[in-house]
User: Fold this.
Amino acid sequence: QVQLVESGGGLVQAGGSLRLSCGPSGRTFKRYAMGWFRQAPGKERELVAAISRSTGSTYYAESVKGRFTISRDYAQNTVALQMNSLKPEDTAVYYCAAASQSGPVVAGNEYDYWGQGTQVTVSS
Assistant:
């Protein structure tokens, strides 16, 4: 069992930055490809960024390319999402997820574990 805990959400003005972090428990972190998803009110959940289990390969949604960066720290057992140049349309609950695959994994239904989410609000 993998438990994922997100942190780093909050309120920021448009153009600002936030850094989200996800810390899975246990020593199995290296076995999982990781992803960040978001869900805004009234909208479907969407993949924001994903990173592979070991090669460092990444995937980004078109809407965040050039603004967001996903990374993982194997020593700290964490995966981070650096979000720059934030826009009001980035407002959503952001979720960390883990998939038992090499990755990067794009399909949400291929992820095995999910965090509780952290709110990101971008004011205009």
